[in-house]
Amino acid sequence: TETSGYENTLDGAIKLAKAMYTAIKFGNISAWLHWSLSTTTLDSYSLMSSSGEKSKRYFVSKNFYKYIRPGAVRIDANAADGTNIYPLAFQNVNGNTTTIVLINDAASAKAVQLSGNNLPSQFLKVITSAADDAKDNGMTNSSEIILLPPNSVVTMFK
């Protein structure tokens, strides 16, 4: 499916991430595309301007696009109701990768603990939040508690 029209703010980026979550989790879509990668000026129809200025929507999209690669299959991922955490998980047997995308739409930080069969021992942690733009936060042990900043998208990749 394709989309556009989200405000060029952190709130608009989180709404975009939640729309992607809903379409992937409940609609079982196989692709999500933004209407336009770039336009002359940064607007709600593009992720960046033709001069290279990138929006928060660009970085939120990067949390998905860069780490959920062709051949990845969605696997079960759950968070308790009312936590404001929206998880998606993918396994790519051909690429031997696991990707977990965690959306926190709360105004406060949230702590999560990953669990499940065959989790990699470590993940690369990538954060988009008010302070970070798809920032590589290095490797994190999968047994550690993961702090999700307020209004953020955190991608765990191995």
Query: How would you state the average pLDDT, rounded?
Result: 91
Poorly predicted spans: none
Profile the largest sheet.
Answer: 6 strands, antiparallel
Global geometry: globular
User: Which structural class matches the secondary elements?
Assistant: alpha+beta
Number of strands: 12
Instruction: Report the total helices.
Output: 2
Helix content: 10-25%
State the distance separating the first and last CA atoms. Answer: 27 Å
Strand content: 35-45%
Q: Taking strands numbered 1, 2, ... along the chain, how are they ordered across the largest sheet?
A: 5-6-7-12-9-10
The radius of gyration over CA amounts to 15 Å
- The succession of helices and strands, N to C, reads EHEEEHEEEEEEEE
